[in-house]
Predict the 3D structure of the following.
Amino acid sequence: MTFNNTLARRHFLRATGAALALPLLEFPTHAAGIPQSLTELWADFDPRQEPLEIEVLKAWEQEGVVCRLIRFQVGVFKGAPARVAAFYAFPKGGTKLPALVELHGGGQSASLNSVVTYAKRGYAGISINWGGNKLNFGGAPVTYDGPQTDWGKLDATHPPQRNKANHFAGSLAPDEFTLDAVESPRNSNWFLVLMAARRAITFLEQQPEVDAARIGAHGHSMGGKLTTNLAGIDKRIKAAVRDLIAALAKKEEAGRRLLDNTMVMFGSNLGNANSHESKNLGIVLAGGGFKHAGHVAFDRENNTPLSNLFVTMLQRMNIETDRFGSSRGTVSLGEG
């Protein structure tokens, strides 16, 4: 076996997250007023337009960190307000702070420990309790038995608390707790939670201690999927892989683009974040001097091992190997 095309520098970057396709993109047959594209889906939603109607439910300080339990309004739907509770924290006396939106996973809840940890590292952080479960105060000496997340006449809790249908994994058909009375992508709970996440960004923008130009997002499991979706639809999120790739493409190293000397892989160990299925993974690979051909679909029933891609990447870095984990070969990507 021969190994050509060595890289001028061995760059191997891997970012993990739930890089999965939105169920929202599986649009129903065209009907008047029903979004037929991602652009149409978000066209009428301005996350800054309506007042947040912020409630400070509890406030305290611990270990040099200002902590608040808040609730903000996502919007008014079917005549009733939808409100989401959240933990917000920042280092006492901090100014011009970078900020993070944390999105918890399925069946979980907002985490006070997370935002306190962010604050100790110099960030402002908000952890939204979109799932409506019991708030996680961690080991904080705080008691609370007041208002919580209330989706009003909708139900984007997880697991669903009122709706027998699970609109995170089920159909887009209408029912008592959906936004539209006809089959519509707006009936997906992913859409509702992403609205709440975008409103959380607006909350951060309005805080005097936050640098609105430096806001990122973080999440795990279903929260990881929400994070990658959020970064794709809201330009206010700056911690996006797209920005990294664009920066690498603009810089030169050894007479070529730095991106050509770098491989960036972004993906997930989950093909379905709702069921935690590890098949049919969504993976993005950029750079490395490969002949990238856009979206490449493999056999959904007889999956190509992800480790085949790892072998290809290792060989690209001039590492003489033909095996990695459960690999059965390589992935043909061609020369750039």
Observations:
- The chain has six helices and eleven strands.
- The longest strand covers residues 65-77.
